[in-house]
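Thread: Modeling a multi-component assembly for a lab meeting

Hi all, long-time lurker, first post. My supervisor asked me to bring a structural picture of a complex we are working on to next week's group meeting, and I have zero experience with this. I have the sequence lines for every component (778 residues in total). Could someone generate the structure of the whole assembly? Inputs are pasted exactly as I received them:
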Amino acid sequence: MDVYLDNSATTRAYEQVGDVVRKVMCEDFGNPSSMHYRGVDAEKYIKEAKETLAKLMKVQTKEIFFTSGGTEGDNLALIGSARANKRAGNHLITSSIEHPAILNTMRFLEEEEGFRVTYLPVDSYGRIKLEALKEALCKDTILVSVMYVNNEVGSVQPIMEAASMVKAYNKNILFHVDAVQGFGKYRIYPKKLKVDMVTASGHKIHGPKGTGFLYIGEHVKIKPIVFGGEQQKNIRSGTENVPGIAGLSLAASMIYENLDEKVEHMRCLKAHFIEEVTKIPQTTIHGLYDETSAPHIISVGFAGIRGEVLLHALEDKGICVSSGSACASNHPAISGVLKGIGTKKEYLDATLRFSMSEFTTREEIDYTLATLNELVPALRHYTRR
Amino acid sequence: MIFQTFLLKYGEIGIKGKNRHLFEDALVRQVRYALRELEGEFRVHKSQARIYVDCEGDYDSDEVIGKLQTVFGLVGICPVVRKKDEGFEQLKKDVTAFVDEMYLDKNITFKVESRRSRKTYPLNSMEINRAVGEAVLEAFPEIRVDVHHPDVLLRIEVRNDIYIYSQIIPGPGGMPVGTNGKAMLLLSGGIDSPVAGYMIAKRGVGLEAAYFHAPPYTSERAKQKVVDLAKIVARYAGPIRLNVVNFTDIQLYIYDQCPHDELTIIMRRYMMKIAEHFAEESGCLGLITGESIGQVASQTMQSLAATNEVCTLPVYRPLIGFDKQEIVEVSEKIGTYETSIQPFEDCCTIFVAKHPVTKPSIKIIRRSEEKLADRIEELMKTAIDTAEIIEVR
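Re: Modeling a multi-component assembly
Sure thing. I ran the full set together rather than chain by chain. Output:
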């Protein structure tokens, strides 16, 4: 049985997404900047995609900017807005459990551009501490960036509370949300949340890799970080990835169809999985696992087994999962997020992430559970002594 | 500067008496092999104790030199400007143009050294030297002659065409691969074993290799890394047949039956046995390992003796007296280092004891191995029968 439980790393594209990408690539292949009809046709895809995404987020079409994915979106949001607003102050705030696309960009701004960055601690469930945010805010603060859903343990951050707190302190402070893991699982309305920028990615929602978008509120001062032909109002130069944008837009509208049912489906599977997997001795679930956590991510520690070994043993049975976070998995380093939430030492190197999609079935979960029940005791027998 | 020919110099094989043509033929074959995938056409031929590569078509000189530097047996590579013989006046012009283009700073000393293998040429070599020297002096006022220690030794060969060259780029040395049989390399993903394979191949020995993996304890990427390393070594050593052996069951069996601190040493003994099986099957004349005395617990003098004991074929350990840093330097030079340091666990480290034995007694190890008597033969047979063979080139 082939079971793909690594949907937080990437997802399989919807068939229809594949079709539209191919069609735009091979048939409607014009450059949207061209003046002839092929350019006009290509531009239509972009316009429609903006309309689709703007509607899904209840924002204006001119506030949608296409990127090459989550990493670029995060870089543009942080670097572009920090540089554009540095006269107002040089202090940035983020959480200690962000994705490397945020953390390493913050580090760059700290080391190369002279900004000061506060990294907020999190509680044992992987949620930022609001008191810490309150204390960190100061007259120099210009930007706060907090993720919607943590990619490793699935904790959902109190975005609305945090944003209100920030705006109450000083309404000019910008609030950015890395929603790469949240988009397509939650309805994200920037105006309601009172946030100024939101990053999303295509391949986490059954869209193409190399696609994504950044919502930038119209009032936000931002500078470009790449330079060229001044496409997308000179905020993001470069010929638009029209096939990717068409695919991204279709994937977004598809994933939000019957969203509540899909989420409920994943929640049921998650509850079932957690109930059963914790019956295996010496296992633990990282983060919260009630309704306040993401429906699709389950992070499980198996004491006494290196995560990588269990991963390959599962792989051998046709089950694909991640150890820690896929983006960091080819480094043997211990996950910063697990450390950040105070995970016990025996689980640090012994954790797997199971992440579902709307396509995950009960049979797949049961097969995975049966396989774990068989493998875990066998692998625990052989350890370093 | 565009070079039309590469003149290849070889060292040691020149002294091999009546076998010499065998070595030369092997060298020509290896040169052809090295150039096989490059764009352009290459005519490789030998003549008067030299090998010439005449190039035609859309070739890139730097690429050709890069490839030639991987051919063991070559000590020097001379990029040659080859001209049609259009009279002596033209020859002088060609040489002057050569000097002009090769040496931007003319504040140098030089000497002309010509050879005339076409004896019908109107001038003899002394006359050519003198007349060409004068022409060069006339063309560039700053340049001077020094017949004892010239900065530039300008060589002219009169064959059917005229060959002009002054540069000798060092080759890798050694002997052409295939002139000394072949051996079985125990290849891991580490820094040492690819270097060991390189060094033995340099002496003219063709390579096969054995890699032991232990899924799920080692990953597919760890195996890919070994294939990548074999590919880099194959640039020098020619095609390598890689035997990938699944070692998991043997390893777990040893884990269950034997004292834990002897695990590594016993494991290595079985690896040697399996490698020797493949070696004998394919006519290899020895085994090669990357061991170096004292580097880790399994490479102490006692441990080496214990692993050595299970083999009848000679075991070659070209790094035996090298320090780690010296090995690293070679691996950087041959281009395996970057790949070797990718962090994937290999099967030697997964269950390694916190305090493995460093001075194993062969007697005690043998006694521990008796506990494996029930199943080890069967497990070894399975490991051998299920080995995956990858032809790396």
